[in-house]
Amino acid sequence: MKTTVRTVTAALFAAALISQAAFAETKAGLLLPKSGNYAALGEEIDAGVVLALEEAGMADDIRLVREDSEAKPPVGLAKTRKLVLQDNVDVLIGIVSSAVLGAVRNFVDGAGVPLIVANAGNVDATGKDCSASIFRVSFSNAQLNRPMGTWMAGQGIGKVYTLAPDYAAGHQMIEAFISAFEAAGGEVIGSEFTPFGKTQDFGPWLSKVGASEADALYVFYAGGEANSFLSQYRAFGMGETVPLYGPGFITSPLQTAAQGEAAVGIRSALHYIPSLDTPENNSFIAAFTARFKRQPSEYAVQGYDAARVLIEAIRVGASGRAEIAAALPGVRYTGPRGPLQIDPATHNIIQNIYIYETVMSDEGITQKLLDTVENVRDAANGCDLR
Ligand code: PHB
């Protein structure tokens, strides 16, 4: 009797070990802002992650440990340390703010924990400060703005004024725009930065733009600031005199329902727009809308693709920090945004950039594609991780 019990117990134990090996749980730290100016962006990326896990039937195999970065660098770093040292996560996903990405870069690099960036465009993280542990499936701050600089000059726009929040992303986006715009013959006649996350009244800056000779205004604003900036721009009645351009976060499909008519007519660039008519995007939109009862935006796609590259890595057998990091540089597929590839040299993403106009249609606000710049790849800036 004893022997039988022992044999059965041993057999059960062995079976438990085998099933653990086959379905070894991966712990993923999800670091996103859930409060502050970028809170809605964090929720949207989270939704994209959840959809990808559920669609792949991996919701029980990848356990999410969520932390709120508040989009503040010291908070982001403290939460990253907690996820890595205390929760012992295998991988980190998230980060919305370029400033938070800059703050966690050295710790992530030293700890050797793969970080799949699902928004923050900080160019240094995949350039001069690149890391074997940092991968990006969102966009870089230069990648969206260079094509807009070239395109706007090609439209015959001569003089431009720029505005953006005074932090890493604002500076990097505007710098990339200016260098491409000027190289193509444009002229930037004023460039100012507004205090980040605390500017309620953009009036003083809008007055300066209005009094200048600018043919157009180029801005980067996102989250809550995008909504307040856009409504004040409209209140100044500048739509006819100084048309507004920028990276498409200003009229992100996440926010156009709240913005209404104010968003219509703005021309901008993003790496994803919901109106792309491809089989991959149509099925993504159907799944996201069924699950969350709203249209997805670029932020949802970033969360979806961040989880998807992790799922692909796990499916080819990667388990634990080093194996996941080793599997990511080879990632390449066509998803909702079109073809995407992780650049093995920098771990940045290579993808199409879509120049579009926000328009009103019978079904409500949508995005009219004006131009596609294919397979945009950032300069390596000295980085070579191959
Ligand atoms: C950034 O800080 O890199 C950032 C934040 C919000 C965006 C885009 C970029 O929508």
Automatic annotation (TrEMBL):
Keywords: Amino-acid transport, Signal, Transport. It comes from the Bacteria. Residues 26-358 form the Leucine-binding protein domain. Residues 1-24 form the signal peptide. Pfam families: Peripla_BP_6 (PF13458). CDD domains: PBP1_RPA0668_benzoate-like. This is ABC transporter substrate-binding protein. It comes from Pseudohoeflea coraliihabitans.
